[in-house]
């Protein structure tokens, strides 16, 4: 009997698994999923799959004749992904707990590598690109998405202005370094990719906007707190953090009274390349 005719798959009692993808990851991920060349019988790798995205979706879309590896060092993410894999009844995923700087796969053994906001989080991008080039077959597809250096410029320009008013030049420099480290400029990343024997097929630019009623709502949003606040705080001396964020919050709130919202622009790119 076919699996899909025989099972009683239900989210009853499994509501915590009823989310394929975090809202933040969706705009990047939809573009990436749309650009994959789907073929039977291939070997794929997802770098930095977090809670299982797009790993499980790609495994399901490719079907059981393909094998999809996922590499990530995050233990909790791996545990949750393994629960999803079991619940969805997926048989073609192999999880690797580790770092993409050192991928335990053979040379020229993979047809497709994807990374949804993963490669901008690795510590040694040059090394990771070398590993991708080593394991990907000639003609293989390498798809990655990442948000760009102008992300959230609305917030950063407020922060820079407040720091300038307080004559905190060192912190302004730290802020620019933080942006550079988190979101390397595309004109540095593209030559790196090419250097590792890839040909760029498409560069698709897009943008979504993270909108809030005002600065208070934005700064209290759980995702801002969990994903960004720590790195923003690290730029600032502890004894000034409250004063600086208070000023920024007030200014964003005043601005929202006029414009009706606080908007954080998230420009991003999908790089679709082919191994030579
Ligand atoms: C922003 S999350 C993206 C998660 C997921 N792809 C998504 O779209 O929701 C980045 C992921 O990269 C992983 N990561 C960080 N450094 C890594 C490395 N050196 N090799 C592989 N994965 C890494 C993190 O553990 C995290 O799960």
What do you see in this structure?
With 276 residues, the protein is of the alpha/beta class. Helix content is 46%, strand content 23%. It has helices at residues 3-6, 26-35, 55-62, 75-88, 125-135, 153-165, 169-182, 186-195, 215-220, 222-235, 238-259, and strands at 43-47, 67-72, 93-97, 110-116, 136-147, 198-212, 262-275. It has a seven-stranded mixed sheet with strand order 3-2-1-4-5-7-6, with helices on both faces. Helix 6 (153-165) packs antiparallel against helix 7 (169-182) and helix 6 (153-165) crosses helix 11. It is globular. The termini are far apart. It binds S-adenosylmethionine.
Characteristic terms for this protein:
single chain; 276 residues; alpha/beta; seven-stranded mixed beta sheet; 11 helices; 7 strands; binds S-adenosylmethionine
